Amino acid sequence: MQTIAVQIKDSYVQNFMSYVNNHSENITISKDKNLEQDPYFYERQKELHQIKNDIDNGKVEMVSHEKVWGNIKNHLKTIENR
């Protein structure tokens, strides 16, 4: 069995569901919980995997938590001293 994603025009959903019901011995429909919570889940997942690969390959530098907050604190000090 294979799993595929199908996009259906709103105006065609009823026809599609009729087709599925007529062929229910060969088709199973289930909702993807990831897509219910975030319609862009798989795009975001792909992007995060690419970012991780870029970090692992040295294309992107990972900055430490301490360095980020240090930069923020320094920036706030410069704003306060104006």
Flag low-confidence runs: none
User: How helical, in percent, are the residues?
Assistant: 55-70%
Shape: elongated
Strand fraction: under 5%
User: What about the largest sheet?
Assistant: none
Structural class: mainly alpha
Q: Quick one: how many beta strands?
A: 0
Secondary structure tally, helices: 4
Give the H and E element order: HHHH
How far from one another are the termini? Answer: 66 Å
Average pLDDT number: 92
Gist?
The chain contains four helices and no strands.
Keywords:
single chain; 82 residues; 4 helices; 57% helix; 0% strand
Account of the 3D structure:
With 82 residues, the protein is mostly helical. It contains four helices and no strands. The model has no long low-confidence stretch (mean pLDDT 92).
Give the arrangement of secondary structure elements:
Layout: H1 13-22, H2 33-37, H3 41-56, H4 65-80
